[in-house]
Structure formats: structure tokens, C-alpha cells
């Protein structure tokens, strides 16, 4: 059983930056593919960025060039660096770990507003 705890969300002005962290416990972190998802009010949850166990990354088109996903297997943590934030990035951001099964964190709120 893998437990995931996100942190780093908050209120930021347009153009600002945030770094989200997702700390994992209870499993062998390095074998899991990891992803950051988000869900805005009234919308479906969507993939923002993913990183495989081998380090290959992929991004939603609208965040390419602004967001960077990374992982530190020694710290059992995956990060999402978010720059040039826009109001449309406002959502609850969730971390997911996937191997044979998938595990979700509880989410962290990101609000981009002036």
C-alpha cells in the first residue's frame, strides 16, 4: 500500500511560481510511474505531467514550457515546478503512483488570482 502526501499549493498571482511536492511511503518508489493531475470545479480530472520509473516525461500541451516534473528516488518524492502560472491553472492538484495498482494523494489547492 502506497501513501502519497502532496504539499506546496497555495494562492499565487498570475505569472508567479509554485513548486508542488508529493512524498511517497509504503512502497518501492523507484518502480512506480508518477503523475500530477488536476481538477478544476465542474471539470474532469486531467493529466498535467507524468514521469516514468525510467525518467521519461510527458506534459499536457497547455503547460509545456511552463511546468517541469521531476523525481528524487532517494527522497521518495516527485515534484512539479510550475512557472508563469495563469488563472486557468487554478485547480486541486493530485499526485498519482502507478504500477500494478494506482494510488492517489489527497490533493493540494492551487489558486492563481490577482
Gist?
The chain has no helices and eleven strands. The chain is mostly beta strands and 114 residues long. The strands form two sheets. Strands 2, 4, 5, 6, 9, 10 and 11 form a seven-stranded mixed beta sheet that branches. A four-stranded antiparallel beta sheet has the order 1-3-8-7, with no helix packed on it.
Structure description:
It is a single chain. The protein has no helices and 11 strands. The relative contact order is 0.32. With 114 residues, it is an all-beta fold. The model has no long low-confidence stretch (mean pLDDT 96).
Helix/strand layout:
Blueprint: E1 3-7, E2 10-12, E3 18-25, E4 33-39, E5 46-51, E6 57-59, E7 67-72, E8 77-82, E9 91-98, E10 102-104, E11 108-112
Parallel strand pairs: 2-11
Antiparallel strand pairs: 1-3, 3-8, 4-5, 4-9, 5-6, 7-8, 9-10, 9-11
Amino acid at each position: 500500500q502506497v501513501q502519497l502526501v502532496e504539499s506546496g499549493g497555495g494562492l499565487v498571482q498570475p505569472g508567479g511560481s509554485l513548486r508542488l511536492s508529493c512524498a511517497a511511503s509504503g512502497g518501492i518508489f523507484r518502480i512506480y510511474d508518477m503523475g500530477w493531475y488536476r481538477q478544476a470545479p465542474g471539470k474532469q480530472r486531467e493529466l498535467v505531467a507524468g514521469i516514468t520509473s525510467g525518467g521519461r516525461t510527458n506534459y499536457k500541451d497547455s503547460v509545456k514550457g511552463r511546468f517541469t516534473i521531476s523525481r528524487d528516488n532517494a527522497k521518495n518524492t516527485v515534484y512539479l515546478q510550475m512557472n508563469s502560472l495563469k488563472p486557468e491553472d487554478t485547480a486541486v492538484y493530485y499526485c498519482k503512483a502507478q504500477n500494478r495498482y494506482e494510488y492517489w494523494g489527497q490533493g493540494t489547492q492551487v489558486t492563481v488570482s490577482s
